Amino acid sequence: MVGKAELLEAIAGKNRGLLATETDKAAILVAVAQLEDRNPNPRPLECSSLLEGNWRLLYTTSNELLNIGRFPLVQLGQIYQCIRTAGSRIYNIAEVSGLPYLEGLISVCAQFEPVSERRVNVKFDRSIIGLQRLADYQSPNNFIEQIEMGKKFPAIDFAIPSGERRGWLDITYLDEDLRIGRGNEGSVFVLTKL
Asked: What is the CATH number of domain 42-193?
């Protein structure tokens, strides 16, 4: 039976999935499924204190995220998913770099609504793409504070029309420092709490 340590070992060195071979991906998905079977919190949405906070992506099968790291001259930095349970908000933040002084960020903000004991519907409502220094980006917390205060950024900052980007996410494993989710497009996400 695979545990957390074995899953973390399987995804180590895979650069969030960018370097995973098909064999790696198959083995990781088996490890994920075995860990999901032993979820210590089968009703994760009732554990808001565990869900709340900033999570760093360790591994994903999401081509949408991994494709960011496949652009020429672009290196994918850290990817965060920050959950604010009190406001039912999710902030996805990807740091990118490449050319000196042109470190960027790609962020999508969303509202979530619980629809079962482990599933949330997600409605994306804002996207921000720009240079970190122009957005005064220092950390996920600092950036989210600026967003929540209503700041408009000198970047590509636009509202996503209602109904245009929706999805759902099942939280299939949750403990004090590890979360696994499965999205509506079949993607798997493994994250660690900061």
From this structure: 2.40.128.280
